[in-house]
């Protein structure tokens, strides 16, 4: 059975990651002049341990870390491609497809219905 709760926690952490990295990229390109970008990023990243801790009530550390990493990598990549107009080779695009497949596979409960905790 597909378990959306760990996916939601991982997506929230990935959203924070994508938002902060986009702010920093915008600042480095001169698109954002606001000097509070770094302190804001630090404040937002300070939420990660709490979110991760709560996610462990629903899934194992291994799966949660993988879900967060893959979702974050994909969302940051998409932000780079579509907003910042960065380029990506064909082989790297194939890697993104495999990453999506990994998210789906990691979001399914184990056969006993309790995840891998």
Give your account of this protein's structure.
- With 117 residues, the chain is mainly alpha-helical.
- It has one domain (4-111).
- The chain has helices spanning 4-28, 37-45, 48-55, 61-82, 90-106.
Which residues sit in consecutive blocks of at least 5 with pLDDT less than 50? Answer: none
Shape: flat
**Strand percent estimate:** under 5%
Count of the separate structural domains = 1
Taking the alpha carbons of the first and last residues, their distance comes to: 15 Å
Structural class determined from secondary elements:
mainly alpha
User: Helical proportion?
Assistant: 55-70%
Q: What's the gyration radius in Å?
A: 16 Å
Question: How do the SSEs run, as a string of H and E?
Answer: HHHHH
Task: Describe the largest sheet.
Answer: none
Mean pLDDT over the residues: 88
Please give the count of helices: 5
Keywords:
mainly alpha
Set down the secondary structure blueprint:
Blueprint: H1 4-28, H2 37-45, H3 48-55, H4 61-82, H5 90-106
Helix pairs in contact: 1-2, 1-3, 1-4, 4-5
A few lines on this structure:
The chain has helices at 4-28, 37-45, 48-55, 61-82, 90-106. It contains 5 helices and no strands.
